[in-house]
Specification:
This protein is of the alpha/beta class and 423 residues long. It has two domains: 50 residues; 328 residues, no CATH class. The chain is built from eleven helices and 19 strands. The protein has a seven-stranded mixed sheet, with helices on one face. The protein has a four-stranded mixed sheet with strand order 9-10-12-13. β7 and β8 form a beta hairpin. α4 crosses α11 and α6 packs parallel to α7. The longest helix is centred in the first third of the chain and has 56 residues. The N and C termini lie far apart (127 Å). 33% of the residues are buried. It is found in: Golgi apparatus membrane. Its main location: Golgi.
Length: 423
C-alpha cells in the first residue's frame, strides 16, 4: 500500500529536485542567451562605430589631400634647402603655400599710409585667404622680411622706388613692413606725400624710404596725368634728366616700367622738345627699347656701383582674356603656369638692355610667380575716378574690375621679401 501511493504521487507531480534542476537549466540558458545577445549587440555597435570612424578618417584624408593639392607644393626637394644666395637661388622656381596660422605684420587698418586704391579689406572685400599665401623656393630658403634688419641696413641711407602705380604699391608695402617696427610717435617717423616725390623717414635710423613718380622713366606728356588715354600719350624717348636729377645720391634705387607694357601696340614718340610739331608712331616694343636705353645710359653715366645698388623689377601683365581676377579667391596652383598676357617680346627687350649695361643691375624677376595670384588683385574693392566703386558699379564687373593693381597687404609684400633677400 505504501509503495502504490508513492508511485501515484510520482505520476501526479514531479519531485522538487527535478523542478529545481529544470528551473536552474532554464535560468542558465536565459543568462547564456542574454550574454550572447549582448555580445552580438556590442559587436554590431563596434562594427557600426568602426564604419563611422573609417568614414571620418576617409573624409579627413580627402580634406587633407584637397588642401595639399590646392596649395600644390608638389614633391618637396629631397635634399635640404640651402640658405638664400642671390647668385645660386632662382626666385622663379617655387610654389605658393597657404599658411593661415602666420601673423600678418600689418593690415590696411593698422598701417595709415596705404592709398584707398589698394586698401581692399578697408574697402569691403569679404574674404581674406589671399593674405596668407607664402612663396617658397624649391632649393633655397627665402628669408622672411625683417624690418629691424632692413632699417639697420638703411641707417643713414636713402632707398628710392622710381616708377608707376604698381611700384607705388610696392613702396607702400615696404613702408608698412618697416613701419611695423617703428614707434608710433611723431618723433620716431614722418611721412611727406606729393604728386611727384613722397618720403617716409625713420628718424631713429636717419633712413628714408622714397617714391618718385616717373611712370615711363623717360619724360612724357602724361607724367602727371597717367589717365590720359593711350592715343593721347606722347613719349620723349631720349629725354630723362628732368626726372633723373631727383635720383642722384640715393643708396638704393628700385625701378620698374610696368606702364610701358599696357600702352597698346604702338606708342607716339618725339625727339627734341614737346613743342616741336609732329611725332613718330612706333611699335610699343621698339619705343620701349629706345626709352630703356636712355635710362640705361643715364645709369651707366651717373651711378657709382660701389655706392649705389640698382634693382629693376620685371613686370606682370595678365589682363588679357577678360576680367580674370573678378571673384577669384584662390591662386592658380599649376606649377610653371605662364599667363597668356605676358609679353615675351617686351621681356626680351628688358633683359637685352639690362644685360648690356656696365653698371650691375639686379633683376627682381616677379613675373611668373605673380601671375599665379589672380586672387590678390584689387578687383572691385578699389576706387575709380577718385571715388570708391559703388554697389551698382560692382554689378558691372566687366567695366569696373581692376585686374592691374594689387591689394596691400598682399602680393607686393612678397616682392619686398625678394628685395630684402637680395639686400
Amino acid at each position: 500500500m505504501v509503495q502504490l501511493s508513492a508511485m501515484k504521487r510520482v505520476k501526479g507531480r514531479a519531485p522538487l529536485s527535478v523542478v529545481v534542476a529544470i528551473i536552474g537549466g532554464l535560468a542558465l540558458a536565459g543568462i547564456i542567451f542574454t550574454e550572447d545577445l549582448r555580445g552580438l549587440t556590442e559587436v554590431k555597435e563596434k562594427e557600426t562605430e568602426n564604419e563611422k570612424e573609417k568614414k571620418r578618417t576617409s573624409l579627413r584624408a580627402e580634406m587633407r589631400t584637397s588642401v595639399l593639392l590646392s596649395a600644390e607644393p608638389a614633391t618637396p626637394p629631397q635634399a635640404p634647402k640651402m640658405a638664400f644666395n642671390a647668385s645660386q637661388c632662382s626666385v622663379t622656381k617655387g610654389y605658393w603655400a597657404y599658411d593661415r596660422s602666420r601673423k600678418l605684420p600689418y593690415t590696411d587698418q593698422t598701417c595709415p599710409y596705404i592709398d584707398r586704391q589698394d586698401s581692399c579689406q578697408r574697402n569691403g572685400r569679404p574674404d581674406s585667404d589671399y593674405l596668407y599665401w607664402d612663396w617658397h623656393l624649391d632649393d633655397c630658403v627665402l628669408p622672411s622680411f625683417d624690418p629691424v634688419s632692413i632699417l639697420e641696413k638703411l641707417r643713414g641711407k636713402r632707398i628710392m622706388f622710381v616708377g608707376d602705380s604698381l611700384l607705388l604699391g610696392q613702396w607702400l608695402s615696404f613702408v608698412c613692413l618697416v613701419n611695423s617696427a617703428v614707434q608710433d610717435t611723431p618723433a620716431a617717423k614722418s611721412m611727406e606725400r606729393s604728386r611727384t616725390l613722397s618720403v617716409y623717414t625713420a628718424r631713429e635710423y636717419n633712413a628714408s624710404i622714397e617714391f618718385y613718380w616717373a611712370p615711363f622713366l623717360v619724360e612724357s606728356n602724361s607724367d602727371r596725368n597717367i589717365r590720359l588715354g593711350a592715343s593721347g600719350r606722347v613719349l620723349h624717348v631720349d629725354a630723362i634728366e628732368e626726372h633723373a636729377k631727383h635720383w642722384r645720391r640715393a643708396d638704393v634705387l628700385v625701378f620698374d616700367s610696368y606702364v610701358w607694357w599696357m600702352t597698346g601696340y604702338s606708342i607716339k614718340t618725339v625727339w627734341g622738345s614737346f613743342g616741336d610739331e609732329g611725332y613718330e608712331e612706333l611699335d610699343a616694343w621698339v619705343a620701349y627699347r629706345l626709352g630703356l636705353k636712355t635710362w640705361a645710359n643715364w645709369v651707366d653715366s651717373n651711378i657709382d656701383p660701389t655706392v649705389t645698388r640698382v634693382f629693376f623689377t620685371s613686370e606682370d601683365w595678365g589682363r588679357e582674356g577678360g576680367i580674370r581676377c573678378y571673384n577669384e579667391t584662390w591662386p592658380i596652383t599649376q606649377r610653371g603656369y605662364w599667363g597668356s598676357g605676358s609679353d615675351r617680346r617686351m621681356m626680351e627687350v628688358m633683359s637685352g638692355v639690362l644685360g648690356r649695361m656696365r653698371t650691375p643691375v639686379t633683376l627682381l624677376n616677379i613675373t611668373q610667380l605673380t601671375e599665379h595670384r589672380v586672387d590678390a588683385h584689387v578687383s572691385v574693392y578699389t576706387e575709380t575716378g577718385g571715388l570708391l566703386v559703388t554697389d551698382e558699379q560692382k554689378a558691372d564687373p566687366q567695366r569696373y574690375t581692376d585686374c592691374i593693381h594689387w591689394c596691400v597687404p598682399g602680393v607686393p609684400d612678397t616682392w619686398n621679401q625678394l628685395l630684402y633677400a637680395h639686400l
